[in-house]
Amino acid sequence: MPRFYFDIRRDGVTKLDTDGLILPSVMIARAEASRAAIDMVREASPHDTPELVVAVRDEAGKHLFEVQAVVRVLER
Amino acid sequence: MLPQSNPDDLHPLIRKLESIAPVSGDERQAIIALPITVRNLKAHADIVRDQDRPSQCCAILEGFACRYKLLPAGRRQIMSFHIPGDIPDLQSLHLEIMDHSLATVVASKVAFIPHEALRSFLRAHPRIADVFWRDTLIDAAIFRQWIVGLGRRDACARIAHILCEVYVRLRAVGLVNGQTFTLPITQAELGDATGVSTVHVNRTLQELRGNGLIATPKGGGGQVMIKDWDGLQKAGEFDPTYLHLKKKAA
């Protein structure tokens, strides 16, 4: 089974995944990245306008996809 | 046909009871005399299932177990972890039908105690019945902490809290090596226990290591080395008071 790396980008700052996670397929990795993005954006402070990106690489370092979770306040 | 009961078999149970209340010599002898069936179970073996009506209780002697509930679409909530000395299904003595399942997390040695034998024993030793009652109350206190965690703590605090809790519980029964202990669970299982997605668990553990709070040696079989005990407790908002351990054990 392949290993995927989930880097977290928050406000332009990226925290690289040094361990990776072994998952059955890219499809599963996409589902897990979405879950992680939702989990993490839930923890953001209400004073932020958090934009959180989970960027997924494969073992060769190739960028596969990224999941963005955005909470945006629109003033009326 | 019950296999010959080795007097040492129930030592983990005695050690666990002694960590929360005094146990007299007579009471110790009576525990050792309980008729038990010792079994070696594989990892991920169900000990008792949701909706079962068991006629015996199960004491964990070696290994690690968890209470869990399976939900539709294969989702799972792990509700507690259990270490040697725990009798996680003690409730079956008074509640006829199980509302959750109990399974081993790794290969474990367990002792089954028939309800009738346990009942007569507790009637003959009411002080030990009090200790079992105390243990059940502490079980409930642990659930309360998990509720607070699931409801209000972030992933990092939930995970740090569980690490602290398992460490302190294992330490109370002499199953740690200084500040190193074994938590033989997968990241997915940790996620099922804390309501955190697997990737987030993975990243949170990296964060705890990066902040110098813990080390998790690769190939260590779930070994966790606490590098900064005060820091880890603070990260988990952990205060061991709710475990009600006797002074010398805490």
Structural commentary:
The complex is a heterodimer of chains A (76) and B (250). Chain A is of the alpha+beta class and 76 residues long. Helix content of chain A is 22%, strand content 37%. Chain A has one helix and five strands; from the N terminus they run E-E-E-H-E-E. In chain A, strands 1, 2, 3, 4 and 5 form a five-stranded antiparallel β-sheet that branches. The longest helix of chain A is centred in the middle third of the chain and has 17 residues, at 26-42. The mean pLDDT of chain A is 91. Chain B is α+β, with helices and mostly antiparallel strands and 250 residues long. Chain B contains eight helices and ten strands. Chain B has helices at 11-18, 25-32, 115-124, 126-152, 155-172, 187-194, 198-210, 229-235, and strands at 37-41, 46-48, 56-62, 65-70, 76-82, 101-104, 108-114, 180-182, 214-215, 223-226. In chain B, the strands form three sheets. In chain B, strands 2-6-4-5 form a four-stranded antiparallel β-sheet. In chain B, a hairpin with a 5-residue loop joins strand 4 and strand 5. The longest helix of chain B has 27 residues, at 126-152. Classes of the chains: A alpha+beta (76), B alpha+beta (250). Chain A binds chain B through residues 6, 8, 15, 17-19, 21, 32-33, 35-36, 38-40, 43, 54, and chain B through 154-155, 187, 196-200, 202-203, 206.
What are the low-pLDDT stretches of chain B, counting only 5+ consecutive residues below 50? none
Report the biggest beta sheet of chain A as strand number plus sense, adding barrel if it closes: 5 strands, antiparallel
Residue ranges of chain A: pLDDT <50 for 5 or more in a row?
Answer: none
| Proportion of residues in helical segments of chain B | 25-40%
How does the helix and strand content of chain A classify structurally? alpha+beta
Helix content of chain A: 10-25%
**Judging from the principal axes of the Cα atoms, what is the shape of chain A?**
elongated
Radius of gyration of chain A: 13 Å
> SSE order of chain B, as H and E?
HHEEEEEEEHHHEHHEEH
The largest interface is: A-B, 16 and 11 residues
Question: If strands are numbered along the chain, what order do they take across the biggest sheet of chain B?
Answer: 2-6-4-5
Structural class by sheet pairing and helices of chain B: alpha+beta
Portion of residues in beta strands of chain A equals 35-45%
Given the structure, what is the number of helices of chain A?
A: 1
Number of helices of chain B: 8
Q: Give the overall silhouette of chain B.
A: globular
Largest sheet of chain B: 4 strands, antiparallel
Strand content of chain B: 15-25%
